Amino acid sequence: MQVIIHQWAFDGSFDQLASLPRQELVNDWFGYDVEPSAEFAFATDGQYLWFLAARSKEATVHPDARPGQFQQELWKYDLAEWFLAAGDGTNYWEFNLAPNGAWWACAFSDTRRANEDIPAPLAVDTKSILTDEGWCAMARIPLNELRGVDVRDCKLAATFILDTPDQIFLTTADDLSGQPDFHRPDCFSTPILK
């Protein structure tokens, strides 16, 4: 599935992000229907990468996750993620966003090889709505802090881990062979910039 990145000719906002049309993931890694589906949207205003993830179902959030704060191991609970890879290399970023707006990010120099020379972004801003009936989380990440990749020449995958403790795995990547593994930069697709 090809991901759309909406290009804004003006400074973005969370309100504008929330109003964008959303793409849906309706099947898990193994092809089973996911009800309700997971929704996402991406945008850029030239300064930031904006990401929205939502689902109309209660979420299980990491117990130490605090809204807007960096938190490791978010993947052990419900979350949305994106993987942004350099268009012509092995560098890529992983970004995790919990339903309550907690986040985590890491740069990689190759598959599952963290690049210790590149720190996580410092100026990430998030906003979330979390209820018993569903959630919507949004993040704004400075493009200049995503060193090693360029949103204008990249490959991108949106992913979700949901229904903790019986986790299901969803991705826009086309190769779903084997067991769930989102760290497959060669399977990310070139996004549509519109």
Extended strand count: 13
Mean pLDDT over all positions: 97
Shape: globular
Computed Rg = 15 Å
Descriptive overview:
With 194 residues, the protein is mostly beta strands. A hairpin with a 5-residue loop joins strand 11 (154-162) and strand 12. It has 1 helix and 13 strands. The two termini are 16 Å apart. Strands 1, 2, 3, 4, 9, 10 and 13 form a 7-stranded mixed beta sheet that branches. Strands 8-7-6-5-11-12 form a 6-stranded antiparallel beta sheet, with no helix packed on it. The protein is globular.
Write the SSE topology.
Blueprint: E1 4-7, H1 14-18, E2 23-27, E3 33-44, E4 48-55, E5 79-86, E6 92-97, E7 103-110, E8 113-114, E9 125-131, E10 134-142, E11 154-162, E12 168-171, E13 192-193
Parallel strand pairs: 1-3, 1-13
Antiparallel strand pairs: 2-3, 3-4, 4-10, 5-6, 5-11, 6-7, 7-8, 9-10, 11-12
Defining key terms:
194 residues, mainly beta, 6-stranded antiparallel sheet, 1 helix
Concise overview:
By secondary structure, the chain is mainly beta. Helix content is 3%, strand content 43%. A hairpin with a 2-residue loop joins strand 9 (125-131) and strand 10.
